[in-house]
Amino acid sequence: MAVTPSGESLDTFPRLLMHHARVRGARPAMREKDLGIWQTWSWSQVAEETQAFASGLAQLGFLRGDRLAIIGDNRPHLYGSMLSAQMLGGIPVPMYQDAVAAEMLFVLQDAGIHIAFVEDQEQVDKLLEIKDQCPELLHIVYDDPRGLNHYTQPFLHSFDEIVAAGRIRNQNQPEFIAAEIAQGRTDDVSVMLYTSGTTGKPKGVCQSHHAFIASARGGAEFDGLRDTDDILSYLPMAWVGDHLFSIAQAIYAGFTVNCPESGDTVLTDLREIGPTYYFAPPRVFENMLTQVMIRMEDAGAIKRGMFHYFMDVAKRCGAEILDGKPVSASDRLLYALGNLLVYGPLRNVLGMTRIRVAYTAGAAIGPDLCRFYRSIGINLKQLYGQTETCAYVGLQPDREIKFDSVGKPAPGVEIKIADNGEILVKGPMLLTEYYKRPDATAESINADGYFMTGDAGFLDHDGHLKIIDRAKDVGKLSGGAMFAPNYIENKLKFFQYIKEAVCFGHDRDMVCAFINIDMGAVGNWAERRNIAYSGYTDLACKPAVLELIGDCVAKVNAELAAEELTADTQIHRFLVLHKELDPDDDELTRTRKVRRGFIADKYAVLVEALYTGKPTQFIETEVKFEDGRRGKVAADLVIRDVPTYDAQGKRAA
Amino acid sequence: MAREIGEVILDLRNISLRFGGVKALTDISFDVRDHEIRAIIGPNGAGKSSMLNVINGVYRPQEGEIIFHGEHRRDMDTHEASAAGIARTFQNIALFKGMSVLDNLMTGRNLKIKTNFLQQALWWGPAQREEIEHRKKVEEVIDFLEIEHIRKTPVGRLPYGLQKRVELGRALAAEPKMLLLDEPMAGMNVEEKQDMCRFVLDVNDQFGTTIVLIEHDMGVVMDISDRVVVLDYGKKIGDGTPDEVKNNPEVISAYLGTQH
What is the CATH number assigned to the segment(s) B8-85+176-256? Predict the structure, then answer.
């Protein structure tokens, strides 16, 4: 644990904050764009303001151990309020700002919130709507007073009013806050983050100062974060990743948190700030790439030619140069030229000129996508973790990037793979408990003190962790090999021509797949080859399209063959479905996850045909149209065999 | 509501406007009180836009009298009107399509600029300070209307609903005391209309701006106006609170038709 020269240990976030105010008081702690101009708060300003707000909260009756609900977009005052609550030994409970009132009700009741700090009128209105059902909610404090001057409820307070009251109290009792901070212990709960609750009711995950500081220190040392770094904070404050980056690591390493002007301006703000440290989910990186590609298609022929030529160079050697691998002198020279003409300007357009470390997580990222960013010199890496582990389990080390792994165990983290393939983790970052749910706490941590992640995965020869699926989705082939449908489907979906895939294999002797083509990408591909088609069904049945998809499947097989654990789950036969899987037909969930069981039942005849070796199968399906009408889609589907490979990449069948 | 409606600030008496033989407005009288939302409604060609154009001096009525803040006059002059704090938006958007949102809003500050052309061309001293002041005001409007993300976008590239919002923004940038809105919600979808209603109410509430608006959507008019004046064929056929107007038999027949 870090210790100041005076011997005080920096083992809680408020102590770290006071430390920064002393040693780098004038450096920027937070920025926010307001009225078109970036406003800066220095560490000493943040320390002063959070202490004032803390005293103001105490005045409202906020006690040690109380929970403070925090609802709103990423705003400096909202981040600061987390520290104010922690100063008093309280627990901040950030909540998802776009949740509707009824969804907030559960968390407010479960956490027993007395005081809520919210961003603006929108959030105040939501709380007023449900206040009658939360008798424990006594005070609502708002940051932005706009539109609220006619609200006369006595329990509504403005941020300015609370801070002003706190300042007076701090003048009269200058030792009050210092004494409160001194009482804090490192094992105190520092934050409660609610799990999204995709399975059952949300659970409040209690994390201690110790856990988050250990995770922040591990990450900061791993990537060499320092006080000159800048991060753009635009992901929900209630999400564990944002808490790790924008609170824990920022306050551990002392770097600057930048809050965008609004949700719609993030890309502009990204360019203006030019962060050195950046996080985004895969879809953000995907959207940026699509934007670049679309704009390049509209560029003049010379620029377009130059772009494509140098992107080929980057594809060949860019990622290797970033990883410090040997690359021929001529390629190095070409890459340097490309850097001057294409990669540098491109990074600038994306706002990524200054990035030293960028992370992505939350979903599988396609290897091509990852490779694109790395090849133009952006150090994009993956990480892996859960709310229960402070989002800190696996990190990809610089220069050791494998596109299909989530990296090595992070410093201080111990990973074990259970017999059923489930990933078990142990370390300082584990949760203290689920709030008021000793049953759930006991269920999630096994007798040896390992947290059960619920994900299945394995450690490869170099000690890299690969995630394959949710543990409960993993099945077994009748031959005994582990079958992870999601893992294979994701590999298939990384091809732009494949939109959805459904794999079968549990309790069967081989893996077979249904495939949905991507209408846009395949349609475009067909047009360029003068293949005429009338609609999805027609296009999906074209022999040339089947050929194209067959090649993709064969490539996936080659990848699966290279890994010992997955070599037996290569795809033997596939068909392209005659209709697109659709949430309206209950084949996908609303978040577009395939409902494998439902699909297997609905298309039982097709599954049967896959496994009985039939060359074709007739199918007729009822579909719902958007306007509520119903119709039928019928087709004779051709079933194709795919070559499989052995570990050396030779064709096995 | 804390908002209080004050004295009459604009009084129109016996206004008649003719274009050759066409009588656009015939002997119309009504008043606007400080701080209120006053709607003008009527079927197509009733003379609503002509009425607004009389108020801010685009048209000169042949007969009648306009009393604005106690001053009697025969007609308004457009410059006088805007100097006196009357700003307006137009039925067909009148923005500079090739200029950014920000620049369009800055044109709304035109009348408030005190430094001369040479000072501004050199952009030195007072001119610089002044522009920063104006920019600050414009940024407040941008924040108010939640259009930060399109600050630098050329107006021509924006969807219709947003262009309408920008036009309101330009009028607001002039910090008007009275705002004339000519069909601010025409051609909008339900969601855009709701947004616009909220902005109109907020402007009225927070800046204390008096608002005179023409609108076809009866739901909107009845919801947000304090008083409504109804025109038909250039004549006034009703005047009063939304409820009074709704039950006025002449208004009903003008809108729904009557059995003859």
Answer: 3.40.50.300
